[in-house]
Amino acid sequence: MTSSPKASLYQHEPDGPGREAIEVLYRIVAAIELSPTVAIHSVDRNGLVRFWNHRCAELFGVSAGEAMGKPLLSLAPRRNAAYFAEVLQSVWDTGSPQAHDWEVGLHDGSTRWMYSAHYPVVRDGEPQQLFCMEVDVTDRVAPNGANGPGPGFQELFALAGDAIVLLQNNVVIDANPAALQLFHCSTKEQLVGRTLPDFAPPTQAEGAPPGEAAQSLADVAGRYEWQYRLPDGSGFWGEVQLTPLMLDHAPMAYATIRDITLRKVSERNLMMAAQVFDNSRDAILVLDRNYKVIAVNRAFSDLMGYASEQIVGKEAPSLRSGVHDEEFYQEIWSYVAVHDHWEGEIWTRRHDGAEFPCWVALTAIRSGSHGLADYIAILSDITDRKRVEEKNRHLAEHDFLTDLPNRVLLLDRLRQALAAARRQHTKVAVMFIDLDRFKAINDGFGHQAGDQVLKETAARLTRCVRGVDTVSRHGGDEFVVVLADIGGVDQAAHVAQTVMQSIIQPVSVSGTELTVSVSIGISIYPSDGGDIDTLTQHADVAMYHAKQDGRNAFRFFSPEMNAHVVQRVQMENNLRQAIANNEFVIEYQPEISCETGQVVGLEALLRWRHPERGMLAPDEFLPVAESSGLIVPIGEWVLQQACEQAARWRDDGHPVCVAVNLSNAQFFHNDLLACVDRALARTGLEARYLDLEITENVIMNADEVTIGAVLALAGRGVQLTIDDFGTGCSNLSFLRQVPLSKLKIDRTLVGEILRDLNDDSIVPAIIAVARGLKLRVIAEGVETEEQLRFLRQHGCDEYQGYYAGKASVNPDLTSPHR
Which of 127, 227, 297, 404 is deepest in the core (most CB within 10 A)? Predict the structure, then answer.
């Protein structure tokens, strides 16, 4: 699911809610751990310590490692231990916080007064731990007195920095300047005569009304906390030390009030931090500077399978799992030492030994002097995320239909294979495989059948190669195979032969047996190229030649092949320029009546006036035009020009038919009918003066749509001629259904007239077939008087060829021919 560990060493997740949550948790844990004035510890139901912060270690003289798992009272004994136990049990039972002053024994034998606030940490409605925040109040706790103030009380009353009020029957009878300032009073009259509950909100923090709360404390000497609300809307938390005294033989009390608002806010924040720490869904552990565990939360225990007592005081199991090497972990710690933070993916091991991927955010916690104090690590199980990433990566790198590697993954595999071959001085073969005439399957049986053939082809290709090889679908009906670490070309040839034999076996699709062959081109590293682009290009060239040589074959690349392809590409580019530069020329060869010798038609023959090579005949460039698809725009241009010329001849008093050859691409193009309509409409030529010539094989392969276009053309009056008749295989019953006008006897048959007595019967047979189909007959390639005489004797209607004259731009339409 992941590569080498170091690949993810310095990964960082983007900013967003995830990072913000980590920072919040960091601040919370740092607040708990590094609180400079508040000692924070927690205990479980057995009274055993589960958390012990830095201030605890400083105050009680016991380190976190020594404290963890020990009874609290053995570390910080209380003078009234029985009552202390009752208070804790009350918090467990009621879930309500409680605060008291306690005299606590320290490690060195001394005692201090502690203000202790105990809060339950609740999960699922039940207290799980008790967090205690303790503040040393020794300096502020005065012994209760009952004998009245000593000498100088009035002076101390006036000069004290703490607010002091004198009470009689809970009513303020005097207040010192500090009290006036604390209660925002400009004169004593604003305070004297009122009770302290008059300066309280409707309820205290515990929920009791101020009067009831005050009554419960009225007769109790000691220290308590009170929330005040002042007339101007402000307020504060006060720590009240209530001391009874006798003044002028009258029982009174004085209250020393200190503003503890900041401390209460700190306690509240720390309490919230404790709740968040223990209830966080992210696993959190706190480590000391020696990488020993100080504390973990419940999510960590759930994730890793360790109870807190199993790992506190020990080295973190999640960061020393043994899955990665020691150098990997050391790099992490070194990075944090410099940058204070590291995030990344590691593989870790649970307590039961199960390994899983984990995203870790490791942060150094610095003390106020910027010295390193502790570390906080936040862990998230990313197994599901990795699974989704792996699925998405698979989808991005594999073909959706065959599940084979796509081009992206193929290039990566080929890159690796070439790198290994360079190191080991071995060979690599790249095979381009194309299904022969696959389009016919899609057209004849539907794309669903074609998809089944592609999937079966993919499965068979995979079975033909080794596990170290790669089979990829390159798109459409083309596949690429990379044969890594082969011994030589013979091994590649053997695989190609195996592939051909496997693929040609019939594929059953919905009860129909379909057979398909393949053409394969092969290039070899390093002889045919040293880089990916060259090897793939040469394999493609070799595949093209396998198709040109008849298909169902494989060919190895050769420089001669490449030269031919380069020439073909250059020819294609020149053809595009020729269209733009109007370099094409049409010459017209007369079609002569055998009976009268008059010109009855002309065949439009395309020539290319090449700027460098001069005038080129059709056979020098039409194959490239047909294979590249350029024959369609070129053919439309020829049709347009021929119709314009025929219209001019008609206007000059020579109404003759012009014959235009249609290529395979033009004939099967879905724009054929519209193309003819445009040419006739633009030139004003009547349809009867246009003769479209198509070869025998083309018309026999026409589908229903194309035959429909032919019928539509005939319905418009356009003439149709079967060109090169006698060289293909015709179905005469099919020809009866096509509205043809003429049959043109191929020049190869005409050339054999009077040369081979066995062939002399073929031409008369063709003429007889035409007569049976009620078609006229024209013979092309007539070069001698003897050939013409033979044709006349057997009833041929028309002829064309050098005997009648060569093709020219301006043919003679008036002079009679022999």
Answer: 297
